[in-house]
Amino acid sequence: MVPDLRSPYSEPASDLNLTAPPLRFWPATAMVFAAGMGSRMRPITDRTPKPLVQVAGKALMDHMLDCLACAGVGTAVVNVHYLADQIEAHLQMRQQPKIVISDERAELLDQGGGIKKALPHLGHDAFIVCNTDAFWIEGPGSNLARLAQAWNPDAMDALLLVASSTASVGVDWRGDFTMDAWGRLSKRREGAVAPFVYSGVGILKTSLFRSEPRDIFGLAPIFFSLASQGRLHGLRLDGLWLHVGTPEAIAEAELAVSHSSR
């Protein structure tokens, strides 16, 4: 299923001052990160993996997997390490998207290494990345559709969905990025406050990882390197972003979801 990206609710790429690619793009595959230890969520995560922590009656990872399914993403590659058996058992109940497990039980590879290991399942061009410790209350249109429509491989190697640092729930740091009029992201200066946080979702080229010699490496340094080259772009999230990084943030997120349904 390919969504109609010409929806009147979708923001055209021209709003980012970028030229839309000649062919409509829709990522068929997502890399979903579910292997982390969830240390900041303890003691809850002593026995329950963080992606399965319940928020508003649904596991955190299901909030994002449901979003991917509704947007027409066909396959989600999910990496597992900590309490992996619980995550695998939970995912067996899902119908959409199709789940492919990337097993990291032997060694936790960090996000970059997890992507490298999963490359055979991620296609040849670009794919979605997706954290499982956050989700959002959607605005008038699909943020994933807007992200896909704004993707321009000629101008960017990665496109991140970013949210307001001050108007989001559960943001307890000084932000991640600034963004210029062309949608290019820059790393927050040390000691400064940045207006945007990375939502945990983006579109990345597979070519960023094919020649990487390391097996264990992070994703943030890749983002910062691309930013310095002008190849990291952002799209502002339409709606309310909910980051659930601590036990205290669960109640905040549930309150926001409750208010949104009134």
Labels describing this entry:
262 residues; alpha/beta; Spore Coat Polysaccharide Biosynthesis Protein SpsA, Chain A; seven-stranded mixed sheet; two-stranded antiparallel ribbon; 7 helices; 24% strand; globular; disordered N terminus
**Strand adjacency order, main sheet:** 5-4-1-6-11-8-12
What kind of sheet is the major sheet? 7 strands, mixed
Total separate domains:
1
- SSE series: EEEHEHEHEEHEEEEHHEEH
Query: CATH superfamily membership, which one?
Result: Spore Coat Polysaccharide Biosynthesis Protein SpsA, Chain A
Counting DSSP E segments of at least 2 residues, the number of strands comes to: 13
- CATH topological fold name: Spore Coat Polysaccharide Biosynthesis Protein SpsA, Chain A
Derived structural class: alpha/beta
Quickly give the CATH architecture: Alpha-Beta Complex
What's the CATH class label?
A: Alpha Beta
Q: Gap between N and C termini, in Å?
A: 31 Å
Query: What's the total helix number?
Result: 7
Low-confidence stretches: 1-23
Describe the global form.
Answer: globular
| Average pLDDT level | 87
Q: What percentage of residues falls in helices of 4 or more residues?
A: 10-25%
Beta-strand residue fraction: 15-25%
Give me the Rg, rounded.
17 Å
